Amino acid sequence: MYPRSKAVALVIAIPLLLLSLVACNQADQKPQWQSPPSLREGFPTDPVQKVNGTIITRAELDRAVKALTVNRQLRQPLSPAMLRELEAEAIVQLVESELLYQAAQSTATMPRGGERQVSEAIARERTRHLSDAAFYRSIEEAGLTLPQLEQSIRKELVIGNFVEQRFGRSVGVAADEAEAFYEANRERFRTGCSARASQILVAISGSGEERDKERARERAEVLLHRVREGESFSILAQSHSDCPSKARGGDLGYFNRGELDPRLEQAVFALKPGEISDVVQTSYGFHILKLTEKRASRPESYQEAKSAVYASLKKGKMAPLVAAYVTELRGRAKLEPGLPLP
């Protein structure tokens, strides 16, 4: 069984693993991880656990296992023993999350501004994809619909609000404690390596056959030539790009390493500010990239890291309180197993 203290720490951290799964699915090339096969027989709607009458389905378990696999970047292929361990861990998380959610129903609701947080989380994921079609495809590949993804975020927000109301107000962090923690853990608090870039995307139209790809490539090469001859990148993007960023002159905004398709990321981070890439091919089409700014990773000052320092210390103090409460909830709960583990 997965250690309870670690499992509860994951619950109260509100990791939104499903969002990480959707983000991972945006990569153009086939990911290095593989969706682990279910260790169970049956259908996606089959119950694998009941929590006070609420069913946790095989599909939910499979998604949770897949999300854990992606989140931890586990090497493939996974052994049957590792899959069994991940399933057991995922069941613990799903059960404890459901117990906290049920407990929250009588006292806690969505936090103030919760719907805005849901919308912002979805919007952030949209911006990591080259088109709405790619975004929805990633959700589908994660085994979800958009309403299901939104509801999972709402559920996590309700749980987080409940945990904060019940335990957070009794937990304090002193200023000298926070400063000492920062000094002892400076390497934990760094900005990520990021960049800001613009792109012109020439999508592959038609049926996607070789002749369609060749036409798209030729269009991209012509546009690249025009850019390198001195025409405005932003004006050409507005007129010719097939990416929604055309409305902003191709501007993709800032992004961290790991958030773009690997081929696009490699091209962007190889550039110097103001430089233009060669044509880069992905399944979306042919891309021309212009680097606006690159920011190297650096240590955060205490003021920059302060909120994260306080949050980390507070979470650590809350963890044993939540663990004890979840143990109490489990003791009172009616937990009925569904399909047995092999």
Automatic annotation (TrEMBL):
Coiled coil region boundaries: none
Domain PpiC: 192-293
GO terms of molecular function: peptidyl-prolyl cis-trans isomerase activity
Entries under InterPro entries matching the protein: PPIase_dom_sf, PPIase_PpiC, PPIase_PpiC_CS, PrsA_foldase, Trigger_fact/SurA_dom_sf
Keyword Isomerase tagged: yes
EC number: 5.2.1.8
Top EC class, one word: isomerase
Keyword annotations: Isomerase, Rotamase, Signal
Leader sequence segment: 1-27
Name recorded for this polypeptide: Peptidylprolyl isomerase
Organism: Geomonas paludis
